[in-house]
Amino acid sequence: MKRKEILIFILTAIIVYFAYQFITTTLLLKLPVLNSGDLINNKKVSPQKLYDESWKVLKKDYIDSSYNSQDWKRWRNKYKGKLNTDEDARVAIETMVASLDDSYTRFLTKKEYTEQTNSIDSHITGIGVNIMSQSGKTIIYSVIENTPAEKAGLRANDIVLCVDGKSVSGLDISKVAELVRGPENSYVNLKIKRNKTIITKRIIRKKIEIKSVESSIKGKIGYIKIKSFIGSNTASEFVSALKKVDTTKGLILDLRGNTGGLLTNAVIVANLFVNNGIIVSIVSKKGKKHDINAQTNMPIVDKPMVVIVDGASASASEILSGALKDNHKAVLVGTKTFGKGLVQQIVPLPNGTGLNITIAKYLTPNGSDINKKGIEPDYKVEYTLKDYRRKNDTQLKKAEEVINKLCENK
């Protein structure tokens, strides 16, 4: 067996072992580690019963035992005898959840819950574009290969004007994405602006497999970008990416725009670099602190590393960044991270609905609570819209400068 094959075998074995150990030793967190099909509760109940179940879950698992300084019992019978439809239940549950003043805890309708669990399975039904908002405009910033969007001729920098005749000007980016997605084999009509030309496209929707990780090599430096930690395949994709850059002297890990995902993914990736000590600490509702430690004393990847972060690097991205920084395994470049130090649990409810509920908070290895504070990079570098338009990636350039110096000094 060749050296690279041995390495990938060892890494894969460690991931499987660690995932098992992690899941069995942190059952109290009840994180969504199963396939989405195992998480959906299609039992049909009345609107009142759905509300009651939601109240019970929040009472039992929500992190703040004061429930935002209110008597949680006041919600128990508030709508008794008043809920006749699923819409009545949705409004009542959302009103109850809103009283917690927690933007991360929310009720998921059947449609929203399905989309959430599909993301965990690393697929969505759509056309295959990544979009962003700039000055109220929806811009396609990349087109995924071998998707309906690519086959239809959509390009990066196309501006989306209308979706099925509805103007998307000023519309929240998540709403635009919702309009573009839809049932498999259905069609969506897009009106786009390319330079000064208006183009209309009729595109079929298909199941789009989401690749979370991409990699490349520049000279003696490896580059890996993790787009999201939400997919169940993220850890194995990362291992494959490591294999591709195995011969490099240094590594740049790009977490910009990565808003998070599954805690397990962040911990597993961190464990490939941190060979001893704490990766992250979880503090439960009752204040009990549980340290998640590296599961091996053998360093797996031991080379100079720079991590690029920005204001959209959140949650699982911050867990990984914090673990690498506090354990002196990487230097951070970019801007301060988002500051989300809370852990959510996806709870299935009857009627195919669910709750995304805050159940714990986490601390970085040195005990820092980064919630609403973020993680400061070692080298602060801005990347402006003007830089983006000029294709001048100032943060990546700084990361390359730093990693080259680290490699020289090693």
Strand content: 25-35%
Q: Can you summarize the main beta sheet?
A: 6 strands, antiparallel
SS field, number of helical segments: 12
Q: Decide which structural class fits the backbone.
A: alpha+beta
Mean pLDDT across the residues is: 86
Q: How many strand units? A: 19
Please bin the fraction of helical residues.
Answer: 25-40%
What coarse outline follows from CA principal-axis ratios? Answer: globular
Rg value:
22 Å
Distance between the termini: 30 Å
Low-confidence stretches: 15-38
Observed structural traits:
alpha+beta; 6-stranded mixed sheet; 19 strands; 32% helix
Question: How is this structure best described in words?
Answer:
This protein is α+β, with helices and mostly antiparallel strands. Helix content is 32%, strand content 25%. The strands form 4 sheets. Strands 3, 4, 5, 6, 7 and 8 form a 6-stranded antiparallel β-sheet that branches. The chain has a 6-stranded mixed β-sheet with strand order 10-11-12-15-16-19, sandwiched between helices. Strands 1, 13, 14, 17 and 18 form a 5-stranded antiparallel β-sheet that branches. Strand 15 (305-309), helix 10 (316-326) and strand 16 form a beta-alpha-beta unit. Mean pLDDT is 86; it is low at 15-38.
Task: Summarize the topology.
Layout: H1 3-25, H2 36-39, H3 47-61, H4 86-98, E1 106-108, H5 110-120, E2 123-126, E3 129-134, E4 137-143, H6 148-151, E5 159-163, E6 166-167, H7 173-180, E7 187-194, E8 197-204, E9 206-209, E10 213-218, E11 221-226, H8 234-244, E12 250-254, H9 263-271, E13 278-283, E14 289-293, E15 305-309, H10 316-326, E16 331-334, E17 342-348, E18 354-363, E19 379-380, H11 385-389, H12 394-409
Parallel strand pairs: 11-12, 12-15, 15-16, 16-19
Antiparallel strand pairs: 1-18, 2-9, 3-4, 4-5, 5-6, 5-7, 7-8, 10-11, 13-14, 13-18, 17-18
